Amino acid sequence: SFELTQPPSLSVSPGQTASITCSADSLGDKYASWYQQRPGQSPVLVIHQDTKRPSGIPERFSGSKSGNTATLTISGTQAVDEADYYCQAWDSGTAGFGGGTKLTVL
Amino acid sequence: QVQLQESGPGLVQPSQTLSLTCSVSGGSITSGSYYWTWIRQPAGKGLEWIGRVYTSGSTHYNPSLKSRVTVLADTSKNQFSLRLTSVTAADTAVYYCARAASWSGYFVFDYWGQGTLVTVSS
Fold first, then answer.
1. Which residues contact B94 (CB under 8 A, 6 or more apart)?
2. Which among B27, B44, B23, B69 has a CA at the least distance from the CA of A37?
3. How far is CA A41 from the centre of its chain?
4. Which residues of B touch A1 (CB under 8 A)?
5. In terms of Cα–Cα distance, which of A58, A57, A59, A75 is closest to A19?
6. Are A1 and B96 inside 8 Å of each other by CB?
7. DSSP B67
8. Cβ pair B82, B95 in contact under 8 A
9. Nearest Cβ partner of B107 from A35, A43, A90?
10. Which H or E element spans position A87?
């Protein structure tokens, strides 16, 4: 299946900006989505189609893409944002997920 | 509000078949344009897409699991199911059912079940 690469972990201080990258061959030709998964919970969509934020998702979450790398940015990171984040894209009808990035807010 | 709920055995013996059902409430699995999907997550690891059944009944599977996976829809019960044959310890995971909906022509996973842990062990 389609393979996407993310850094395994990232630490930021409260109030700082967290940027999580996701890269894959030909990701530039596809849309990326991002999911947040808090411990013990099911994933929640936070960004879709590279840059769009679903209703109910705080404005501090934003997405961008340059070439084959998509980026999830959390501005003014809060303790409640501590979670695992997964990028996802479709390739030939198959969904691929990145390995996940554990965001620690300390 | 759409809700999905997984059900099935929490323990499966090696070489046997894993069978799970996802019950959908708050909407019909035959209406709209949706992929009814199974995704799994081994403990401490990432998400793996297993496969899906489309509203029309067509299916699509992860190539790495294709030979062992079947996803079917039961429209009379508003459920869809997962069968995974010849399981090994590597199939131990939390299994999620989810709905992928078309948002502006692009599918996103907008509703998820709570997940169910399946352990493969004798």
1. B40, B41, B42, B43, B115, B116, B117, B118
2. B44
3. 16
4. 49, 62-64
5. A75
6. no
7. T
8. yes
9. A90
10. strand A83-91
d(CA A87, CA A96): 8
Please tell me which residue of chain B has the smallest CA distance to A55. Answer: B110
β-pairing, B48-54 with B59-61? antiparallel
Q: Distance from A11 to chain B by nearest Cα, in Å? A: 18
Mean pLDDT along residues B103-121: 94
C-beta atoms of A1 and B46 within 8 A: no
Interface of B with A (CB under 8 A): 37, 39, 46-49, 60, 62-64, 96, 100, 103-104, 106-110, 112-115
Tokens matching residue B111: 């509703």
**Averaged pLDDT for residues B68-78:** 95
Tell me, what's the pLDDT at A77? 98
Sort out which chain B residues have CB atoms less than 8 A from A44's CB and list them: 112
Q: Is A99 in CB contact (< 8 Å) with chain B?
A: yes
Positions in chain A whose pLDDT score sits under 70 = 1
Predicted local confidence at residue A1, as pLDDT: 61
